[in-house]
Specification:
There is one protein chain. Helix content is about 30%, strand content about 25%. It is α/β, with parallel strands linked by helices. α1 links the parallel β1 and β2 (about 25). α2 (about 30-45) runs parallel beside α4.
Amino acid sequence: MEILVVAATETEIFPYLKHSARTDILITGVGSPACMYALTKNLQIKKYDFVLQAGIAGTFRNKYALGETVAVKQEVFADLGISESGSLYSLFDKGYADSNIMPYTNKSLLNPSDNYFALPAVNAITVNMISDNATQTGMFINKYNPDIESMEGAAFHYVCISEGIRFMQLRSISNFVGDRVKSNWKMKESIQSLNENLTRVIDDLQNKSL
């Protein structure tokens, strides 16, 4: 099976890189524009059976432990829209886009898979700016009811759905959204968990392809 592993930074998948001969690796850089360009360009060069994105994320919910790895069911570009009179509106809400036009399903970038490799399936948002602004966080929670937040996930979903490629986004939770005190973060634990689960998922995919 031809598998591509995508990450924003080498740091997030450094433990896995020693096994990189098993899969192709793409380090895109941080943020949606970098992810969309690098992944789209790469997919024009080589066809893959499965694409995995691996990275860390912040969580909005206490029910997810720091260091826990989850799989993303659906994504949205949370700050692509209009902020008006204290309310947040998406492009779909204002009629600037069709809520079910490819690659969207009911306004979301939905992974159609029902296999989450025994990981919790979560809803995610992607933002262009990580912030400790409580008002902004509250708007995102009220609008999208998300479980986690990243800076590349929706871009990854957008490209994979558009290209018709099977995919999964894995995220390990390093911090609570809005907490910018890095000493509270669990970076070491989240990276370890992420890479253990990344390796396990790739083993499962490759074993099933034999």
